[in-house]
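Whiteboard transcription, Tuesday session. T.W. wrote the structure tokens on the left side:
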């Protein structure tokens, strides 16, 4: 939770909230346990900027698995976490005021992403050694095309090749400090 909060909320969402946009559209590559969607929904409670959150996942967790996760510290947090998981796949639902969620049961490679759609990308794929197909230049290019001008991409990954590939796709790449135990991460901007 600490790592996700650092990379996606502090270095991504907080950064984009500082841009004072009318609306924030987020693409998450890798819904996984639902942690990033839950942290985002919690973080924007009471903020007037609405968020449209689209998450891609090719292998959704079974209910028996996500029910064992113990991220929440109270009943309201548990209820929000459950509502994120119980939201139907491939449908858009409003889970709370200002937070619209669409979970797409698909791979990034098969997803139909429209150009210039997203202000923020949570690229939460496994490391290039574990999921090399997620880090191919053509796959990264698909994400970059879907980013609006001024959009931000954040990821745990800090590999030199990924930085070079993002730069070759026209992004400006930074290496802010990573979460505890990791020297750095990537935050990249689309001009």
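and on the right, the sequence the group agreed on:
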């Amino acid at each position: 939770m600490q790592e996700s909060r650092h990379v996606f909320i502090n270095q991504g969402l907080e950064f984009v909230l500082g841009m004072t946009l009318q609306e924030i559209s987020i693409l998450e590559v890798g819904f996984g346990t639902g942690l990033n969607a839950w942290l985002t929904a919690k973080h924007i409670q009471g903020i007037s900027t609405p968020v449209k959150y689209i998450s891609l996942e090719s292998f959704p967790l079974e209910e028996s698995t996500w029910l064992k996760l113990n991220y929440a510290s109270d009943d309201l947090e548990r209820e929000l976490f459950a509502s994120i998981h119980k939201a139907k796949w491939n449908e858009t639902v409003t889970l709370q005021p200002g937070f619209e969620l669409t979970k797409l049961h698909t791979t990034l490679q098969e997803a139909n992403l429209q150009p210039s759609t997203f202000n923020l990308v949570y690229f939460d794929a496994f490391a290039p050694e574990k999921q090399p197909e997620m880090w191919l230049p053509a796959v990264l290019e698909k994400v970059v095309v879907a980013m609006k001008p001024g959009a931000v991409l954040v990821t745990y990954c800090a590999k030199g090749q990924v930085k070079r590939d993002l730069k070759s796709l026209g992004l400006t790449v930074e290496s802010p400090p990573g979460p505890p135990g990791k020297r750095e991460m990537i935050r990249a901007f689309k001009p």
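Someone added at the bottom: The mean pLDDT is 96.
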